[in-house]
Amino acid sequence: MHDKQDESVGGLIEEFLTSLATRKPSPHTVAAYRRDLRIVAGLAAEETTPPLPLDALAVHALSPRVLRAAFARFAATRAAASVHRAWSTWNSFFSFLVADGVVAGNPMPAVGRPRAPLPQPKPLRGADTPERLLAAVAREDGRQRDPWPERDVAVLALALCAGLRLSELLALRVSSLGGRAGERRVEVAGKGGRPRVVPVEPELDRVLASYLDSRARRFSARSVRPASPLLVDRRGEPLRRGGLQYLVDSCYRRAGISDRVPAGARLHALRHTFATRLAEDGASAAEIMRLLGHASLASSQTYIEVTAVQQRAAVRSNRTHRVLAGLLGAGQVS
């Protein structure tokens, strides 16, 4: 047995998190892993005889009995999805320790876990809410210190018409938009390292072109070089996680629809609205899952390929494009 068996669990947690660097996880993901590991480890330390502070907890003290007791306390005040996520994180942690020769085996199979519930869609509530949101944001608001409706509409439209996650929006570059007229697309760096291509319909393409033109006028043509981040703040700096969340929240407030946004969804509600509208307008489950960048239809199903023509037809069925067309025709978005 490796002599690290007496090493602090806290130190091994940091080694495990460092080992994940090659996977390029988001800071949000790493923070969630660290939180789940340290909370359960702290509870496990309290279950030892005698109870120990976390920094004094050695890995050999993490017996199945101690871990079961810790997870029972952890689960008492948390949803099944949170417990399942923590269990999976600890399972990965012990797999790392086994591979590194720190422990002889993984005790997690002896620790019960709830079945992972299928996530429930959380689209914006109200049949006219996306239209109301886009129309309100397209109008310049004199109360704003530095209004930029072209940028704000572009952010909302990418989420509503391409179904992008927050991390995917932040990763976009100007060069992510490509293809000739009629076959435009956006190349997305998807979750789990799975890239995908989402068709861009003419209305969304015009909204994005209007945004980039406005950006060039604000900062200079150099600000829209191919390698530049696609989405920037009002100073021309790349949008970051907090800034993008604040932008979307402010759009909700300006449109007066904050009460129609499901709790905890925020920007994700736009992605779920994209998927819900596709389903309502006739797209198949396979097309929707492919466009959203999911690896499977459900946890037990295999990945279903669809052709580029089917993907474009599915995106075209999203009636939000007609809203964008109305804004463009009315001159609200130049």
Automatic annotation (TrEMBL):
Pfam families: Phage_int_SAM_1, Phage_integrase. Residues 119-316 form the Tyr recombinase domain. This is Integrase. PANTHER family: PHAGE INTEGRASE-RELATED, TYROSINE RECOMBINASE XERC. Keywords: DNA integration, DNA recombination, DNA-binding. Residues 7-98 form the Core-binding (CB) domain. InterPro entries: CB, DNA_brk_join_enz, Integrase-like_cat_sf, Integrase_catalytic, Integrase_recombinase_N, Integrase_SAM-like_N, Tyrosine_recombinase_XerCD. The keyword DNA-binding applies. It comes from Micromonospora endolithica. PROSITE patterns: CB, TYR_RECOMBINASE. The lineage of its organism: Bacteria, Bacillati, Actinomycetota, Actinomycetes, Micromonosporales. Coiled coil: none annotated. One of its GO terms (biological process) is DNA integration.
